[in-house]
């Protein structure tokens, strides 16, 4: 499989989501984030967009967001129990397994996801993670976990002009959780979990000393 081409396509997709304002419907707001949704063109579900300003430099915010084994993300993101590196394709492209805990009062059982992930940096200082599902021989479905599937998803950290200690963070979730879940559970889970995601990210960044 051409992983470079696949992940480049995901990065282009997320940038198009960021720039295209049409069709998004706000479903949740907090002091940290505005969460919107629109129907996905990738699967029979929705794509969710989070947008908020985090008090912290892009470097520190990214340090908290990096999807890597033994990184800071697992310490604050309640929807990530473990990142497991399955294969390093290039310096910037890897295949990872993400394990998530049960959620929504255990209505949503523990899941795992296998994704190819591209870390991309732009000339203006923007940095992004860009992921989508793949099949990997080294990680077949495992007992105790429902195998879910991420469609183009990730986070984009954008420097705020004139504000070096602030970062605009876009997040995109487009996830087929699989299993026989009521649609109402799925529709309420993502906006709530994304609001918590931004709140916990802000706290994690605040707790960091300048790197």
Notes on the protein architecture:
The protein has 211 residues and is α+β, with helices and mostly antiparallel strands. Helix content is 26%, strand content 37%. It is built from four helices and twelve strands. Strands 1, 2, 3, 4, 5, 6, 7, 8, 10 and 11 form a ten-stranded mixed beta sheet that branches. β6 and β7 form a beta hairpin. α2 crosses α4. The protein is globular. The protein starts with a helix and ends with a helix. The model has no long low-confidence stretch (mean pLDDT 94).
Tell me the total number of β-strands.
12
**What is the residue-mean pLDDT, rounded to a whole number?**
94
Rounded radius of gyration (Å): 16 Å
Order of helices and strands: HEEEHHEEEEEEEEEH
Quaternary arrangement of the chains shown?
Answer: single chain
Distance between the termini: 37 Å
| Helix proportion | 25-40%
Major sheet description: 10 strands, mixed
Low-confidence stretches: none
Structural class: alpha+beta
**Inertia-based shape:** globular
Q: What share of the residues does DSSP label as strand, in percent?
A: 35-45%
Specify the number of helices. 4
């Amino acid at each position: 499989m051409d992983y470079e081409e696949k992940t480049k396509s995901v990065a282009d997709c997320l940038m198009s989501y960021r720039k295209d304002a049409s069709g998004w419907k706000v479903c949740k707001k907090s002091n940290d984030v505005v969460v919107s949704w629109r129907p996905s063109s990738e699967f029979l579900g929705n794509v969710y967009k989070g947008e908020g300003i985090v008090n912290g430099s892009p470097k520190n915010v990214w340090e908290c967001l990096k999807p890597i084994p033994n990184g800071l993300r697992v310490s604050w993101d309640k929807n990530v129990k473990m990142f497991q590196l399955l294969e390093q394709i290039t310096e910037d492209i890897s295949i990872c397994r993400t394990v998530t805990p049960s959620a929504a009062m255990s209505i949503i059982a523990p899941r795992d996801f296998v994704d190819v992930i591209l870390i991309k940096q732009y000339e203006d200082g923007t940095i992004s993670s860009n992921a989508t599902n793949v099949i990997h021989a080294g990680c077949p479905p495992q007992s105790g976990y429902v195998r879910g599937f991420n469609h183009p998803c990730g986070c984009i950290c954008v420097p705020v002009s004139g504000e070096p200690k602030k970062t605009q963070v876009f997040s995109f979730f487009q996830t087929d959780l699989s299993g026989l879940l009521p649609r109402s559970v799925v529709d309420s889970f993502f906006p709530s979990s994304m609001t918590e995601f931004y709140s916990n990210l802000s706290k994690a960044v605040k707790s960091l000393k300048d790197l």
